[in-house]
Amino acid sequence: MGAMLEALIELQDIEHQIVDIRRQLAAKQRGVARQTAKLRSAEQTLAEGSRDLKRTQVAMDEADLDLKARSARVSKLREDLNTVRTNKEYAAVLSQLNNEKAEASRIEKRAFELMSEVETKRKAAGGHETAVQQETRRLANLKGQLEQAQSSFAERLSTLEQQRAAAAEKLDPKSIDLFNRLSERYEGEVMARVIQVHPRRQEFICDGCNMSVTAERANSLMSRDEVVTCGSCGRILHIEQGT
Ligand SMILES: [Zn+2]
Prior knowledge:
Largest sheet: 4 strands, mixed
CATH topology of the largest domain: Helix Hairpins
Strand content: 5-15%
Bound molecules: zinc ion
CATH class of the largest domain: Mainly Alpha
Mean pLDDT: 94
Number of domains: 2
Structural class: alpha+beta
Distance between the termini: 13 Å
Helix content: over 70%
Low-confidence stretches: none
CATH architecture of the largest domain: Orthogonal Bundle
Shape: rod-shaped
Number of helices: 4
């Protein structure tokens, strides 16, 4: 194999390591983003629950006030019963009294229902708060892991970038340009081996896409140190000789 193809393969080896590190970092970043969304959702549930609890508490307080007012009116009407002078007046006050009592007992029942509702919602809010704390801790954990990976990879990445630059210096700008385009397209899988399908037949395939490579291309790879690309996937071809 010629010097240029060797330099390209060296470049790809370095590229592989860079792509791998970037992939690991991207996965961690996605994890942080997913967890952030989870925390937001837990916070939203907590906020909605708290608002709902507050509304129920207000309704309960109103029912309590209403009940107090009605109880006072019931007492007042009871007193009035003792001071009325005619049967007609008595009947009128008594009917009012019975109405107020019925209303008071209805509100009392409602106040009681609201109280148990408040209790249930308060418990749920406690659960939502715990969930928020849990998701917050998980997020902090994932962020810590990402930062740790970033700092531990930073040095490795900068070394690799230097190696990459050094390897690129052995190549002409056109080859580097092609390499970079292919690397972007195939996530670092720029080079593909040409494989002879049968030892005695001039049949070759590209290891990158498994499509056939013409004997002409394969032979030119064996005889010259130049960039030959696969006619199907476009990867830069190389061939191992003497095996
Ligand atoms: Zn191919």
